[in-house]
Write a structure and sequence with these properties.
This protein is of the alpha+beta class. Helices cover 53% and strands 20% of the residues. The strands form three sheets. Strands 1, 2, 3 and 10 form a four-stranded antiparallel β-sheet that branches. The chain is extended and about 75 Å long.
Length: 333
């Protein structure tokens, strides 16, 4: 970041802060030394703030990526800085006074619901070193951020301007609005677990043998309708997908399988191909309006951020940021 934006009078305070770089925090009666990596409007951002940001995203997306490089760390730090700027302005206009507890609970329930059970979710939180209250606060701040962003940037875009630009956008980007070729198929999925892979394979082969003996799809569906591991459906997939590509090459009435899939096995038969087509403007005008509004809002948001950062004292402590390591705890399942 450009260091010239820091006021000279603030530099003296900052240098003193750098010399003291350590804040003592107490967690579970143990002393944790937490380095300051940035200062924004006299408020410190610490190493643990950055680590929490990274790990919470991994918990929500069910996957911690590789150890972040220097660019990644700076990107996550800037995300924290930007959110703090938004929260400060949200407080000024009264958005933060709204009770969002119900929204926070709903979002927390949605996140925990992506895990096998509550115990598994709590284990992940503990392993990643994230307390529930820290996650609650992060969710709350994200909701406030989204509300402020929508109010100040999305809703402020002139609808008449969007309506004028939408037809032009469509004509210039028609290739982005093509429905891909698809194929409709009969599918029989046989789901397996770690404990019954062999049994699942045997069952899949048995069903395939029945089909080869001219047992109808409907009869198979009726025979196995009470079997929880067998799912018989009609589905449609793009021909450029894994299953779509296989099915699109089949001859009429030809079954193929058992095909190994992540969930177990699948047997497929082509019903019909649906050719690709150009979507009409009437079908996509709402979608295009949303795209234009989001692009314009992002531009205005970036301008706003630059203006905010030019008004306040802030600084990234590069050496302290670069020293951070071992952010990830690769135990997500």
């Amino acid at each position: 970041m450009n260091k010239s934006i820091v006021h000279r009078s603030y530099r003296t305070i900052l240098i003193t802060s750098i010399l003291l770089l350590l804040v003592i925090r107490y967690v579970n009666s143990e002393t944790l030394i937490d380095s300051i990596i940035a200062i924004i409007d006299s408020q410190p951002i610490t190493q643990s703030d950055l680590m929490n940001e990274f790990r919470i995203e991994g918990i929500i997306n069910r996957g911690i990526t590789n150890e972040p490089n220097e660019e990644d760390k700076r990107d996550y730090l800037n995300r924290i800085i930007n959110r703090k700027l938004v929260l400060k302005e949200a407080e000024h206009i009264g958005i933060t006074t709204i009770d969002r507890n119900e929204q926070v609970v709903d979002r927390l329930t949605e996140i925990s619901g992506t895990y096998t059970n509550k115990k598994g979710f709590n284990t992940i939180l503990r392993t990643q070193g994230i307390e529930v209250e820290v996650l609650r606060q992060w969710i709350h701040d994200s909701i406030v951020f989204d509300d402020y962003y929508k109010l100040q940037f999305i809703n402020s875009i002139d609808n008449r301007e969007v309506d004028d630009l939408a037809p032009q956008y469509f004509e210039a980007n028609k290739s982005d609005f093509i429905v891909p070729e698809k194929v409709t198929m009969n599918s029989i999925r046989i789901v397996s677990t770690e404990h019954d892979k062999k049994e699942t394979q045997i069952l899949a082969e048995k069903i395939m043998e029945q089909l080869n003996q001219r047992v109808s799809f409907n009869k198979i569906k009726k025979e196995y309708q009470t079997n929880p591991v067998v799912s018989v459906n009609v589905e449609t997939n793009p021909t450029d997908s894994f299953l779509g590509a296989i099915v699109s090459e089949l001859r009429p009435l030809e079954y193929k399988g058992p095909i190994t899939i992540p969930q177990g096995y699948i047997i497929v038969k082509q019903i019909k191909k649906i050719p690709s087509r150009q979507r009409q403007y009437s079908e996509v005008k709402v979608e295009i309006a949303k795209l234009i509004r989001e692009k314009k809002a992002k531009i205005e948001y970036e301008k706003w951020l630059a203006k905010q950062k030019s008004r306040i004292s802030w600084y990234i402590l590069d050496e302290a940021l670069n020293r951070i390591s071992n952010i990830t705890i690769p135990s997500m399942k």
